[in-house]
Specification:
465 residues, alpha+beta, Ubiquitin-like (UB roll), Creatine Kinase, Chain A, domain 2, ten-stranded mixed β-sheet, six-stranded mixed β-sheet, 16 strands, 38% helix, globular, Gln_synth_cat_dom, Gln_synt_N_sf
């Protein structure tokens, strides 16, 4: 008597990848472009792109079998303070990275090189019940699962547009000080100084299918170059690709690019505002067609209420570094200072800058967009389910009560404590991702707490008691 073995998720992915039409189309595109090598890439918990490269001649084999990766890569192969590798040790089984055919692209700066984003699965040689199932720490596939479940339950889709700010140091350009009387914000003469940088970024983005929109300069050397909003998964892919483009442009121009959230005490931070809308089909449910002034529909109010209810706990994801919390602490620099909402006040956690759009301001330039969107989807659904009211906008006169929502945490350590207590946020990540992310970030916080900084030397290093 034999027992039929059901196909695993890995088996089903292999079947999709080896469909004759799909293989022929990809092989044709690769041959036409003259592609010689292909990157098989995944995204780590910290938002880095890692993976393997293989000759294009191995396309068919790799579409069927994928490539093998050690799961420690998902925590950047970080070794904790105790000496143990975080997430997976030397004896851990490798996982299988299967190309996502829809993600295929060709590098515009070297058209002989192409890439796929990959989905991660437990290796086929693992025990039955484990073999072939999706890897829980695969942040990109995790967002797709979270968003799919949300859509199945609510009929809604989250679309987003991101405003990534970056700081550039370009050889040959004299520094513009923060103490100059004239601000560099939106100043076209200052923008012109960085023309070799922004022209390449825009061109490479367009070549990869981004609909580039507008951009500006803020602080000295700080650029913000935006692209059109889209479904959350597409936008998340584009953010990590945009950062990859920036690093390539830095190599080509001899510049240095930084995504550090707060590079100088007196300067603006590098944020990554998430502009959010909810769609049922092609209708934005945050828009009431009968009204034209700034407003929120009932669905919009409840979505906003859910976001605000979980903003404090979500900050561990939105501000993922020790440095992130310096951005929230500096008054007068347009970063969010408190958990409330408003129309024009740039210091609110959420702004309604236009009809049908919520601007969520806590995320910074080092955010992992797959995790941030997964958490926002869960917070929105919680608000819709509980019909959470956000209260009046801050700039409506009376203001949102100061104690209505938990305050923004002041440090990464405090943020991790809030994260652990919020079941909606941890539920959005799932138990395995929560444990792995928390371990990674707790180790980062502990290392900082044990480090002696320049500030301490300046404050305490001269003289005695």
């Amino acid at each position: 008597m034999t027992t039929d073995v059901l196909p695993t998720d890995l088996d089903e992915h292999r079947e999709r990848n080896t469909a004759d039409a799909a293989v022929r189309e990809l092989a044709g595109r690769i041959a036409e472009a003259g592609v010689e090598c292909v990157y098989y890439q995944v995204v780590t918990l910290t938002g880095r792109i890692v993976g393997k490269v293989a000759p294009a001649a191995r396309l068919v084999r790799n579409l069927e079998n994928g490539v093998q990766l050690h799961p420690a890569l998902l925590t950047d192969a970080r070794v904790g303070r105790t000496g143990a590798m975080l997430g997976a040790g030397a004896a851990a089984a490798e996982c299988t990275a299967m190309p996502d055919l829809d993600s295929f692209g060709i590098l515009p700066w070297d058209t002989r090189t192409a890439f796929f984003f990959c989905d991660l699965y437990e290796s086929g040689h693992r025990p039955e019940g484990v073999a072939g199932r999706p890897l829980a720490a695969d942040v990109r596939a995790h967002l797709r699962r979270v968003h799919g479940g949300f859509t199945a339950r609510t009929g809604l889709e989250l679309r987003s547009g991101l405003e990534l700010e970056t700081t550039w140091l370009v050889p040959g350009l004299e520094a513009v000080g923060h103490d100059d009387l004239a601000s560099t914000i939106y100043h076209l003469d200052h923008m012109e100084r960085y023309r070799p940088v922004y022209r390449k970024i825009i061109a490479y983005g367009q070549a990869l299918g981004f609909e580039m929109t507008e951009g500006n300069c803020d602080d000295p050397g700080q650029l913000e170059l935006n692209w059109m909003f889209d479904r959350a998964e597409v936008t998340a892919d584009r953010l990590v690709l945009h950062r990859q483009i920036c690093r390539q442009v830095a190599r080509e121009t001899g510049a240095t690019v930084s995504f550090m959230p707060k590079r100088a005490t007196a300067g603006l931070g590098n944020g990554c505002h998430h502009n959010l809308s909810l769609w049922r089909g092609e209708h934005n449910v945050l828009v009431d067609p009968g009204l034209t002034e700034l407003h929120l529909t009932e669905t919009g109010r409840h979505a906003l209420g859910g976001i605000l209810s979980h903003t404090a706990a979500a900050t561990a994801v939105m501000g993922p570094t020790v440095n992130s919390y310096k951005r929230f602490a500096d008054e007068g620099h347009f970063a969010p200072l408190r958990v409330d909402w408003g129309m024009d006040d740039k210091t609110c956690a959420v702004r309604v800058p236009a009809i049908g759009r919520l601007e969520f301001k806590p995320p910074d330039a080092m955010v992992n967009p797959y995790l941030s969107h997964a958490v926002l989807i869960a917070a929105i659904e919680d608000g819709l389910t509980g019909r959470t009211e956000p209260g009046p906008p801050e700039d409506a006169g009376s203001g949102t009560p100061a104690d209505r929502f938990a305050a923004l945490p002041k440090t990464l350590g405090e943020a991790l404590e809030l994260l652990a207590r919020d079941r909606v946020v941890t539920g959005a990540l799932g138990p395995e991702l929560t444990a792995l992310y928390t371990a990674l970030k707790a180790d980062e916080w502990e290392r900082f707490c044990c480090s002696v900084t320049d500030w301490e030397h300046a404050m305490y290093g001269q003289g005695g008691c």
